[in-house]
Each structure stands twice: as structure tokens, then as C-alpha cells.
Amino acid sequence: MFKNKNFWVGIVIALAVMVLYKVTQFNKKPAEISPQENLTLWDLNYVPTKPIIPLEDFDLLLIKVQGDDNEQPVTTKFSSFKGQPVILHFWATWCGPCVAELPSYNQFGKTSNIVNIAVCVDKTPPSQVRLFCKSKGIDNLKVAVDQNSILANRFGAKALPTSIFINAQGQEIGRITGMVTWENKAAANLIEKHLVGGAIR
After folding, report:
1. pTM
2. Cα–Cα distances in angstroms (integers) from residue 172 to residues 21, 51, 98, 126, 201, in the given order
3. Is 25 in the same domain as 115?
């Protein structure tokens, strides 16, 4: 009888301890950890380029988005940007993800210390690309046209959008194929920090 009594007392105490533990855990606030605190380049689908080699110079056909509708593209040597980190962003007006991403990329271009070149691979005339960019309010990016996909083929940009990361020494050091969450401050800061700092490897 005495043993049975001790048994039941033990059960009651154990249950009381379990209930008390559950109550304290329920009322305990979770640690406030940002889901982006440990964000890495790999989370952004970044793929490093290996081996890293200097790029040979090439021509860019830049259009002035705010220019006259019939204004012709201006040929610019890529080497003119040497000494500055560059993102070559391949896109098209007929590419749904590209169009969805473009406004946030444009906003990224407003505050970044990177030369952001949006290379449009449309086969339409440059004037149509200009009108499209005007309609989307693209005013913080350099816009280039690549009607025959010469640059896209050169860089192996087989899927759109594709962002090519080039350091200040004119070397391709990595790329992201697919949309980038440019509006995500943690992601944008990560790209900015590594590309401007030359730490992407």
C-alpha cells in the first residue's frame, strides 16, 4: 500500500513538472533572429567562375532611355568601365521573370556603387526597347541592345534573366541564373559588399 502511494505521488509530481515546463515554454518569446541573418551568395544561386580570367574587350550598344525615339545606339567599349565593378544583366521584354524583376533591379541601380548594364536580347529595333524601358520607368540602369545575341552567346547566357558579375579588374568572377531578389536588402547588400569589395570567389 505504501509503495503504491509513493508511486502515484511520483506520477503526480512528474505530471506537474511537465505541465509547468510546457507553460513556461509557451510563454517564452522566440529569439528574434532575422531569416536573412545567415544569408550567403549560395542562397542566391550564385555560381563562381573558375578559373577567373580577364575578359577580352568588347562593344556595347548603349541606348539612351530618355533620348529621342529614333536616336541610334552608341557603341561603347566595355574597357571604358575598367576600374569599376560591373553587372551585365541579360534580359528580354518577352521574358516574364525578366520584366517582373526589372523594376527592383532598377531600384538597386539607384543606390549601388556598381555599373549596372541591362543587356536586352530582343530582336526588335532599339527604339522599341527604349519605349519599353520608358514605360517601366527604367532610369537607373545603362541599357544595351543585343539583337543578334552576340554578347549573350559570348557569355553563355542561355537562360533569362542571367546576371554576370565582373570585378574592377575586368574579370568575370561569378553569375546568377534566374531572378534575383534585388528588393531584399540583405541580398542586395550582400551582392554590393562582395562585388565592390572584390571578395566574391
Report:
1. 0.79
2. 55, 9, 22, 27, 10
3. no
